[in-house]
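BUG-351 | component: ligand-complex export | severity: low

The export step for zinc ion jobs runs without errors, but we want the raw record kept on the ticket for reference. Input record follows.
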Amino acid sequence: MAPAALAMALALVAAAPAETLTVNGKDYVAACARDVRLTVDERSGIYTLADGERRYSLVPGFDVARVNGRTVYLEGPVLFRDGELIVPAGLFARPAAARAAAADGTIPLRKVVLDAGHGGQDCGALGPGRVREKDITLSVARRLKTLLEARGVEVVMTRTGDRYVPLLDRSELANQSGADLFLSIHCNACPSGDVSGVETFALSWSITDLTRAQKAAARLSPDDLLDGASRRVSRGAEQAIFSAYLGEQRRQSLDLARSIQAELAGKLAEADRGVKVKNLSVLRETYVPAALAEVGFITYPDTEDKMRSVAWRQKIAEALAAGLGRYARGESVRIERIAGTAARPAQLAGR
Ligand SMILES: [Zn+2]
């Protein structure tokens, strides 16, 4: 917990049964209408509720919470009402492991955005046998869409055909879609043609969450989600809220990248180049958990040959689906080393 100067602890005990309020058609209860302890970290803006068995981390204005370290999605945003923190009633009704594996094989995700890299006049990387990255990424994304939909996940595609879509538009679609995560699919390239393997990217630490929050607060202000009292929060407080939110999003993005990388390297039996971090536009501008998978080196003749086959592209899609399933079930793997990207091939520039 933060030092005393940063944290204010309030012990609150419910005197009466929880009273249900209706806000925007949804049931809410006071966060403290139970036998819980509420603390707030004034620096990060994260509220923590703890009772005997569960610990809830909440950020006002957002419909995401952590319950015993697991992410849960709420029916509506955490709000202030008459100076009191209120939460969607379903929060306390949920089992702690709300996103545990479903027995029927469905993936416990509601909605994902799939981004087939490049498109239109932007062909991406080119293999020695003229296979184009933009065609492979679209084929894999379409196959992954089919797999996910069959498992009960709604899929939004940044492009469904051979079309150029600006990077910011791809992020914006993810930000406005209400999706649980964003996955960008690419093929790697190396001019010498002798490098192979798979790797997955998450956002670099070279850009801080506060820097992103300052931009996000301007673009994605939660004002319209909050009632009058909270609308008076200062720009600084607002940035702190976003910063806390983005810090959480960054942790989830790393989990996502680790899960995808484990399945890509395992299922494709390709060289495991690891999870890496880089300040990529498509990750930096996206405010839901986001990762970029490099599903193989198109410049490696053997890999290019495999990518020509439907069966291999299907296998890539299946590995990515398994990665998303692993992430959704909270089974992200621990990877000791997050590699730097100094020797990154030039193809990634401008992404
Ligand atoms: Zn690419």
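Assignee comment: Attached the raw record above. The chain is about 30% helix and 25% strand.
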